[in-house]
Amino acid sequence: MTNIGVTDNGDVAGNTVLVVADDLTGANATAAGFARAGLRAVTVGADQGPDVVAEFASRFDAVVASTDSRHEPPERAAALVTSVIRAGWPARLVSNRIDSTLRGNVGASTAAALRAVAEESGRRAVALCAPAHPDAGRHTVEGTQLLDGVRLEHTELAHDPRTPVRHSAIEAIIAEQADLRVAHLPLSVVTNNDHQLAEALTGAVADGADVVVADAITTAHLRRIAHAAAAVEADEMIWVSVDSGPASVALATAFGVTGDSAGAPLLAVSGSATRLTRTQLATLRADRAVTVVKAAPAGNAGSVVPDVDATAHALDAALAAAGPGDVVIVATVLEDGDVADISADDATLVPVALARAVRRVLEQRTIDGLFSTGGDVTAALFTELGAHGLDVELEVEPLAVAGTFVGGPWAGLPVATKGGLIGSTTTIAACLDHLRQAATTTRRHVRAAQSRLSFTTPLRRTP
């Protein structure tokens, strides 16, 4: 999966959904909806920093971050929404997941989401507010939210000790915290023909609406609204979903966001200069179609230390062009002529620079498995990628070990590693074959991860 968002020329691309939820229960339920739609979805707790959102945004189809801000002051809730969107951008769809009974900071969070998306995308952001959750008995009629057919203020929610609901008119609830222009999409239009529905949405946007509140009493209504919105979205504007979960799933589907079931490339990293490693790489290149990236040396004459920026740029381009299951190799030494005398200081710097380039790319690109050869570069990769260890599965061949990362942002990633003087001429190929099989098994399951960075800016205040 590649999340591209809004490109420099104004086109919308990518395959990522970013949801900001005001509590963890709602976040989990929303993520479950995306999972049912075939997307790899993950929730991020409010005790995690924005850096975790950024890490997950490159690894999952849908990232649902809880801010735990339902009962926070409006300005605090708005700041947390902004923080998540900035961390998770770019995204094809941003959703402000609100409570289905409209408790909390509906207006403040919506205004913040619109501002953040507009700033990040360079476009006018318009909210499509469809808070109905038909399967849970939440319906929107005449711009009013109903719980099992009853106005919210006539239910026990009126006596909620923290956020009592005084009324159920969505426009009025938004206006309590935000100065936004609201238009209404009534049920008579939602149930009309496709042309009339799209025309109504187009008119609301053209008239300057910041928020379009849509009636819905069935999931089919939400799907109709979403498909109409997808047809209306234009180069100069972008939708932000404000809903209780189902409308975001419907919008993602209408926008063509799908789960990445085909997989991603494999990455092989070689920091070994041994003759055996060169032979193994040559055998692999002769037998299979692989993409090779030679680590670019730094600019100073005679340097063998990879230039991190140049190497990362070349590797990023190679992974972007690679298809599912393809192999991309980045190496410091490929041919006999690449072998050079190296000082002790440079011998220390080479694996660190190579690993750093790899990390920069993996923060943006998804891979299905990582192979490394050379003890120093393997150690550097573990450090740079924040892995706490390797959950060892087996020896592919004697002294060539396979398993998965434990801890860190890439926890659960299939990994195979060997020393530079280990194996036969086909050992690298055997390790890559194992990684491909392991990826097929684990692709749908991505273990929980923590960022390698310190949690200096949690989404929620620590008591």
Description:
- With 463 residues, this protein is of the alpha/beta class.
- It has two domains: 5-254, Putative sugar-binding, N-terminal domain (Rossmann fold); 266-442, Four-carbon acid sugar kinase, nucleotide binding domain (Molybdenum Cofactor Biosythetic Enzyme, Chain A, 3-Layer(aba) Sandwich).
- Helix content is 37%, strand content 21%.
- The protein is built from 14 helices and 20 strands.
- The strands form four sheets. It has an eight-stranded parallel beta sheet with strand order 4-5-3-6-13-7-12-11, sandwiched between helices. Strands 15-16-14-17-20-19-18 form a seven-stranded mixed beta sheet, sandwiched between helices. A three-stranded antiparallel beta sheet has the order 8-9-10, with no helix packed on it.
- Helix 3 packs parallel to helix 4 (106-121).
- The longest helix has 19 residues, at 344-362.
- It is elongated, with a radius of gyration of 25 Å.
- It starts with a strand and ends in a 21-residue tail after the last helix.
- 52% of the residues are buried.
- The model is unreliable at 1-14 and 444-463 (pLDDT under 50).
